[in-house]
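Quick illustration, no need to memorize.
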Amino acid sequence: MSDQNMNRRNFALIAGILAIGLVAATIVGGQSMTAAAQQQQEQNSTEHPTVSTNGSASVDVQPDKVSVTVGVETDGKTAAEAAAANADLMEKVLAALRELGVTDEQMSTSNYSVYPIYNTTKPEVCIMIYPPPPECLPRDEIVGYKASNSVTVTVDASFDAGSVIDAAVEAGATNVNGAYFFVSQEKQQEIRDSLISQAIANARSRADKAAEAVDMEVIGVKSLSLNDVYFPVFYRDFAAEAASPTPILPGQQQVTMTVQAVFNMG
C-alpha cells in the first residue's frame, strides 16, 4: 500500500473516532440538560405558597434600678485649696450615703474637675486712640479656683431615691440631678426572651387564620425577622427647694416587640 493510501485511511479513521465522540457528547449533554430541567421542574413543583404576616407582643415595664447624681463645688484661692475643701465636703456626703445604706459598689465618680475662675478688668485710665495700645485692652485675671466633684448612686428601684437626695443635700451637696429609673440588663434579657416567643406565636396565629381562609394550613416557616425592644429611661425631676422628704416615684411604660414572618402553606 502506498503512503498516500495509508494517510487517507488514517485520516478517515481519525474522523470516524471524532464523529463518534461528538455524537456521544451530544447524547450525554442532552441527557444532562434534560436532568437539570427535570430537577428544576421538580423543585418548582415542591415550592409551597406562602403567607407573610407580622406579630407583636407587649408588656408593661416597671424599672428595677434608679440612679441619682449628687455633687459638690468648692472655691479656693489656689487649686490645691479648692481641691482640699472639695474632698472634705464630698467625704461628708459619702459618709451620709453610707449611713443610709448605700454601699461603695453602688457609688461611682461621674465627674471631677478643678479649673480657674477669671475676672475681666479694664484700665481706669486709657488714651483714647485707635487702635488702643495693649495696656488699654481688657484683661482676664485669675481670681481663684473652683473644684467640682459628682458621684452617681445606683440602687434598686425599691430603694427610696428621695432619701438619697435628702441625705446628700443635708451633708453639703450643692447640686443634685433628677432621678433616672431604668431597666437592668438582666431584666431586659428576661423581658426580651419572653416577648420573642409571644410575638412569634401571635404571627403564627394570624398566619393560621389566613391559611384556613383559603382551605390550606401552615406547614412550616420560611423566614423570620425580629425587631429589637427599646427600653426607655424614666426621668423624675424635683424642686431643689422642696422640703424633706423628697418624693421620687418610678414610672411605668409599655414596651413592644414585633416580628415579620413568612410561613409555607400546604
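The beta strands are 50-61, 65-76, 107-121, 139-156, 175-176, 179-182, 218-227, 234-236, 253-265.
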